[in-house]
Amino acid sequence: MSDTRFRGAGVALVTPFTTDGEVDYNALERVTSNTLDKGIDFLVVLGTTAETPTLSQDEKNKVVDTILKVNAGRKPIVLGVGGNDTASVINQIKNQPFNGIDAILSVAPYYNKPNQTGLLRHFEAIAAMSPLPVIIYNVPGRTGSNISAETTLRLANEVPNIIATKEASGNLEQIMAILREKPEGFMVLSGDDSLTLPMISLGAEGVISVVSNICPGQMSRVCKLALEGNFEAARRIHYEILELTGLIFAEGSPAGVKAALTIAGLCGESVRLPLAPVSESLKEKIRLSLNKL
User: Fold this and answer.
1) Alpha-carbon dihedral 137, 139, 144, 145, rounded to 10 degrees
2) Which residue range forms the structural domain that includes residue 29?
């Protein structure tokens, strides 16, 4: 059986910053509360959307504590724990208090471009140390390496506590190969907001979403309706938010979604270097798209 706690729409939460670059914990509370109040199904904390590589360990701890406080046990929480040094990731797991955390999300190693054997052994080692279920995250456009369907299926079949993959390869043939051959209970989650509906139609069970920071209600309804088989209603909402989804990624994530959150009054647009805020022209397009919603 699938772990239904992670079925539907999960939000990859941003980390808001003040204009002087400090973590804005009050804004983080607002963003988190907004997603919960509008029906998001689970929260993803300290993923790549959170600009986690730019956060100190103390900041990471406070971000987790803030979200746990706001959530108050209402929805499942997935914690991002990843990197391109397997030993370092294992050390993170050993030293991480997992109180209030329900699973971990671990991105494929970036920059060093391991082959499929390296990817397999990396995730086997992480899963062996993890006290919680593991969701692997394939995003070759950012990491420089692709977790093949064959490797994903080996992990799904051979490692009991690897329960899902967040697939952001954009390769529907690869995704269909996983969906066709995966063992019962292993979940495929979309890592591309714009592909969520088509992926659910093929057998995926939800999404870990960036756009849900700004429109959690719409994305959660798309997932719910599609999972119920009501594709006509899901398609209407999908197309309503498709323009905004494209715009928030036009100059990179999470700068785009932070621009939308700024317009909505939920947090500021500040990001940490090497990221930079989106252009004024794109911000205006995002404003117009939000007004349509």
Assistant:
1) 50
2) 4-228
